[in-house]
Specification:
The chain has 107 residues and is mainly α. The protein is 81% helix and 0% strand. It has five helices and no strands. α2 packs antiparallel against α3, α2 packs across α4 and α3 packs across α4. The longest helix has 38 residues.
């Protein structure tokens, strides 16, 4: 009888531990998903980086660049989120043009 009771207690203990670990993993997964999502937003105004990248071609089209330069600039800028942020932080077309020309010369 003792052995049966010990097995019951051990089974109950293991079941409780599995439930606790399962809940902890769910909570961790949820937290990691929130953290990952937060990295996709810019700090300045809460715009998602994905949205900024989608609008990038339209912004580059305003600059005095030919199509080939614009495509190269898109490739260079979208490699690094920081470059996209720097580009959008520059409001003046001349500043943006200088940035892009510098990037194109370096590559």
């Amino acid at each position: 009888k003792k052995r049966g009771r010990v097995n019951e207690v051990a089974t109950k203990c293991l079941t409780d531990m599995i439930a606790t670990f399962s809940k902890a993993f769910e909570d961790t997964n949820s937290s990691l998903a929130k953290i990952a999502d937060s990295f996709s937003y810019t700090k300045e105004n809460g715009t998602k980086m994905e949205d900024l990248q989608k609008n990038l071609n339209d912004e580059l089209a305003r600059l005095p660049l030919n199509l080939k330069q614009r495509i190269r600039a898109l490739r260079l800028l979208t490699k690094y989120d920081t470059l996209v942020r720097i580009f959008y932080s520059m409001i003046d077309i001349l500043e943006r043009t200088e940035l892009i020309e510098g990037l194109l010369e370096e590559s």
